[in-house]
UniProtKB/TrEMBL annotation, chains A, B:
One Pfam entry name: GHMP_kinases_N
This protein's encoding gene: pok
Function comment: Phosphorylates (R)-pantoate to form (R)-4-phosphopantoate in the CoA biosynthesis pathway.
Pathway: Cofactor biosynthesis; coenzyme A biosynthesis
EC number: 2.7.1.169
Broad class of enzyme this protein falls into: transferase
Catalysed reaction equations from the record: (R)-pantoate + ATP = (R)-4-phosphopantoate + ADP + H(+)
An individual GO BP term: coenzyme A biosynthetic process
Keyword terms, alphabetized: ATP-binding, Coenzyme A biosynthesis, Kinase, Nucleotide-binding, Transferase
Protein known as: Pantoate kinase
GO MF entry, a single one: ATP binding
Similarity-based family: Belongs to the GHMP kinase family. PoK subfamily.
Amino acid sequence: MPDRAAATAFVPGHVTGLFTVDRREAPAETGSRGAGLTLEAGVEVTCQPADRTTITLDGAPTSVESVSRVLDALGVEATVEVSTDLPIGRGFGLSGGMALGTALAANEAAGLAHTMNELVSVAHVADVEAGTGLGDVVAQARGGIVIRESPGAPPHGALDGIPGGGRVEYLALGELSTPDVLTEHPDVLTRAGTAALERLQERPTRSQFMQSARQFTADVGLATARVESILAAVEETGGVGSMAMLGETVFGFGTALSDAGYEPQVTRVDPAGARIE
Amino acid sequence: MPDRAAATAFVPGHVTGLFTVDRREAPAETGSRGAGLTLEAGVEVTCQPADRTTITLDGAPTSVESVSRVLDALGVEATVEVSTDLPIGRGFGLSGGMALGTALAANEAAGLAHTMNELVSVAHVADVEAGTGLGDVVAQARGGIVIRESPGAPPHGALDGIPGGGRVEYLALGELSTPDVLTEHPDVLTRAGTAALERLQERPTRSQFMQSARQFTADVGLATARVESILAAVEETGGVGSMAMLGETVFGFGTALSDAGYEPQVTRVDPAGARIE
């Protein structure tokens, strides 16, 4: 039965280095400006239409609001199997990644004939409405080092990219509960994010991305003591690390973390963006 | 000397299945609507800043107007080495591919700090001004199966994508001299291209892409007798092939051409788009 075929999508992880909070009335126009890295480490989602939706994460039953919202929006009931080589809840954009992977895989498996922009919009709205992300989905759909020039899903948001990619190191230390500043004083983040984005747009290079992200981390004061100590150690070796927004995770290009004596996880910038496998 | 470092970019080939001609006063706004496939077969461009620009293609000295125009626009003199596994002048968008590859590699090698959108715009304008392409560069930058919703380089043009990819077969039979209809009656092409694009947008799937491209080929009457005969043979086996716009080249998904007894070249849809290697 072709309408019960399974399809699998891959979505890169996304580490935001700097961001703004841009809330609008419509979720499709709500989002975030800023910049981040999409990663070859990511999330794989397999969907198979079924009589009743079930979701598993690395084999264990779970519920993921952004995924359920995508299936509702598409009018699909499906068996959804999610697997990832990234840690959950540590700033890798996995809620958005699961939403986008579900949109792509469900569209393919159920023969729905939506375009990429339509599926990105469905996943972005689901992530925004679930309260789990503002800018991950649009970046994950594009791939590379993504600058979010204006907020929201297609056709509202506008993206650009910093050419190139390369090796990325990260240390995922722990989860970070949603900081008060995000819910109560988003204007503080947005002011710092706007300034950091402007500096990056003046010189859009990989090196300046790290500098802008590092300055943003310092400005918003969200780094834990463990994160601060690693960032300081990296700087002592002449490198630059920064903090994933939002998780207790430190990242850097090349060998920035291992040069400082840490034993980080290693991945690369993903050049492709989300795709059916 | 870091300012004499070399950098290499890969750009996928691009087969246009249907297109319009949308000329505007500004080359950045000039372009084409339509749809096409980007391919894992493509062009590799290595740039190294030099005192005087030289261009080689698979080792042999050559001149490529779109490449020279990109270097002029960027203010770079460079040794440019181009290699490709696709045949030149047969509808694979190689002029645009060489322009975009040069833009990416020269930006990287010379440390110019342009963004992706800026480099895409420089390459698109060079391809338009050289008279060698209207819509290849923007599609090649994105990757996948690309719908060009509106013409021109960023931020003018708007793109969407058909999810998925897969195996692509092609037979490159020969060059095609620029047909009179393109220069003298672009309105005929644009009428057929607009109709084919509308059908595709009603049901944006891989299958409909082939149907729309096949209908466009029939409507514009550019197929040679050899192309017509292959398309008919493919249809007899229940498959769909179409003609690359513009080259004497037949393409199809999966095993469309080999099922009809041909021995085609094989590649796949490129998921990533142009990138630094």
